[in-house]
Amino acid sequence: MIGMPLLEVDNLKLYYSTSKGVVKAVDGVSFDLDEGETLALVGESGCGKSTIAKALIRLWERNVSMVSGEVRFEGRDVLHIDAEEFRTQYRWKKIAWVPQASMNSLNPVLTIGEQMIEPLLIHHGADKDKAMMQAMDMLEAVGLPRDTVRRYPHQLSGGMKQRVAIAMALILMPRLVILDEPTSALDVITQANIMNLLKRLRREFKLTYIFITHDLALASELADAVAVMYAGKMVEIGSAEDMYTSPKHPYTIGLMGSVPTLRGEKKLTFMPGEVPSLINPPTGCRFYPRCPYFASKDELKGICDRDEPPPIDVEHKGSRRHLVSCWLYK
Amino acid sequence: MYASSMADSPWINPDHLVVAHRLKMWYPVQSGLFSKTRYVKAVDDVSISIGKGETVAVIGESGSGKSSLGRTLLRLYKLNGGSLIFDGKDITKASESSIAWFRRRAQMIFQDPFSAINPFHNIKFILEEPLIIHGVGGSAAEREEMVIRTLNEMKMNPPEDYLFKYPHMLSGGQRQRIAIGRAVILRPDFIVADEPVSMLDASVRVEILTLLKEIQQKMNIAFLYITHDISTAKYFSDRIAILYAGKLAEIGPYRSVIKDPAHPYTQALIEAIPDPDPSNRFKDRKIVGGDPPNLINPPRGCRIYPRGAGSIPGVHLQWIYAEGKNRPWWRSRTAYTLLVGCT
Fold first, then answer.
1. DSSP letter assigned to residue B246
2. How far apart are CA B158 and CA B8, in angstroms?
3. B251 three-state secondary structure
4. Is there a contact between B276 and A217 if contact means CB atoms under 8 Å apart?
5. How far is CA A33 from the centre of its chain?
6. Do A188 and B280 touch (CB under 8 A)?
7. Judged by CB atoms within 8 Å, which residues 168-207 of A form the interface with B?
8. Given an 8 Å threshold on Cβ–Cβ distance, is B203 in contact with A270?
9. Cα separation of A222 and A226, whole Å?
10. Residue A188: which of B269, B275, B288 has the nearest Cβ?
């Protein structure tokens, strides 16, 4: 098993069918992730980052028209195994998910304990008292008092509810945890507390995270590797060191330029234009209509707007390959 | 004329365009039919002034009273105490009908561009409506000219393309431009911008902030920029006010507050915000836990002490001024950072 990544995603595609046409939400995404590593999936809204999470945990909406590619978890393709087997052997047991705004989806008429032990009763067939003890241990691990099991969601603050959502994801001791914007509705100080918690849990339980966020600054709090998505494609992936110090893709460079910094002096820049429609995305590179290099370099005309750029290996200092899907580096 | 009574809040300048002195805005909460009315003290004794063409950022967590403060400064809420002076005129108790002039000169930009503009109206009418209400621009042709000029100012080119579009045909960023256009078309002197960019994506956010800054400089508008995000305030504000649990915690020129925060809460707020840096993942942030206090029964003394951020329980409110080290305040006044309730 040594040397084999925990998760390998190969040419993953997920299309939605809508009344306006087929939305290519995730269109050929590949990456791998080692055990204990954290990958931040970064991109603007609508780029497909949450859809990747739904594909990995195999919980997608009913209007999905096509899912293809391979998701190898511990070397086994879990995207195409029997749904029942995935449910009993993988979902929550090995791959857990903290969905977006999950703190608002706690059941208001059940106590925290009752909803936390549900997966233990179902997956492990544990008895109720033992399960309750385990729930209390987990609450303690996320920094909540043990008697939180007897409380109802409305008695908790936003930060506490988010901690409960994280505890619920960890209760079956999964190996991979997908965190979809885990702090999006929280205040900055609460957010910093949750990030501290996630760092500590990663050390304690040797977790592997996929951290989905739109905030590059926040991503740097957890990420060992950063993948940037644009319009359903992964445009760049590399180690955090490479991505933050020498981003290569024009979109990543633009995104970095628009992140305000509190400490350093930096002039903010923005990318004019809009994210393209995923029903009729531009041919070739999806970023070319907004790309400053395409606009200024004549030799790129007829390439970027016609052929899709493959992932290209560029020089890297960090621990993993730095791949850029851009014709500039061919 | 007001200067003498405002001596207790020396950080406000009675000559400024907007002067709020010891402002109080409490929401009544009735828990039972015969029970005593209690109050959520959303804004509790806040004094602030904003000069012509100046931007003051108000930073705070949710529930800190920052939006209530903004709306109170526009007199959208009734005051429970204190006084509000706009351009030298006391509008604290003025009747709604007597402050139509103020309504024209003070505008607001809302957080959510998806719900702030009416989906049934086209862009032309959305922008024209304030002109009609305030009787600005004599004829329809004149008004249309103003609408087109505003669309140009909002960089929505060519304007003719947008006149008859409806909000649902626009992206979030474009909608926010329309909302901003609607606020500036009357050429106001004062705009309260309540989290104008927090719903937008990073790149669009910078675009809108750049636009706001441009408008502010060109039209010399005073801005109250309400946000929870100190780092965007940096690109837009001259001064910064930190609000905590309905109280002003610290106010001062942006740079001196960020470089040298005096209040423990400001320090925590700054520590909580990451800059993009791959080494962040190796260290924990030194942050206090806990949640902001309940504003119906706020703790006595400093409102942050229950979170153990360094101050002493039971200390009554104190006003302490840390003399700035000759840092220029906005328009070259001696700087000081104000501390409330922390010893």
1. T
2. 52
3. strand
4. yes
5. 12
6. no
7. 187-193, 195-196, 199-200
8. yes
9. 10
10. B269
Q: How far apart are CA B339 and CA B262, in angstroms?
A: 7
Give the Cα separation of A118 and A127 in Å (integer): 11
Residues 6-45 of A with CB under 8 A from B: 38, 44-45
Judged on CB neighbours under 10 Å (0-12, 13-18, 19+), A203 is exposed
The per-residue pLDDT string of chain A (330 residues; one tens digit each, 9 = 90 and over) reads 456 899 999 999 999 999 999 999 999 999 999 999 999 999 998 899 999 999 999 999 899 999 999 999 999 999 999 999 999 999 999 999 998 888 888 999 999 999 999 989 988 888 999 999 999 999 999 999 999 999 999 999 888 999 999 999 999 999 999 999 998 878 888 899 899 999 999 999 999 999 999 999 999 999 999 999 999 999 999 999 999 999 999 999 999 999 998 888 888 999 988 888 899 999 999 999 999 999 999 999 999 999 999 999 999 998 899 999 999 998
In the numeric block, which tokens belong to residue A297? 């370099």
How many contacts, defined by CB atoms under 8 Å, are there between A and B?
122
Q: Which of B204, B228, B280 has the CB atom closest to A221's CB atom?
A: B280
For residue B97 the two structure tokens come to 């009908």
CB distance A63 to A225 below 8 Å: no
> Maximum Cα–Cα distance for chain A, whole Å?
71
pLDDT digits (tens, 9 = 90+) for B233-243: 888 899 999 98
Look up residue A91 and give its two tokens. 């979902």
Distance from CA of B169 to the nearest CA of A (A): 13
Q: Is the dihedral of CA A243, A247, A251, A254 positive or negative?
A: positive
Question: In this predicted complex, what is the ipTM?
Answer: 0.84
Beta bridge partners of A33: A7
Chain-chain contact of B209 with A268 (C-beta, under 8 angstroms): yes
Q: Which residue has the tokens 């086994």?
A: A76
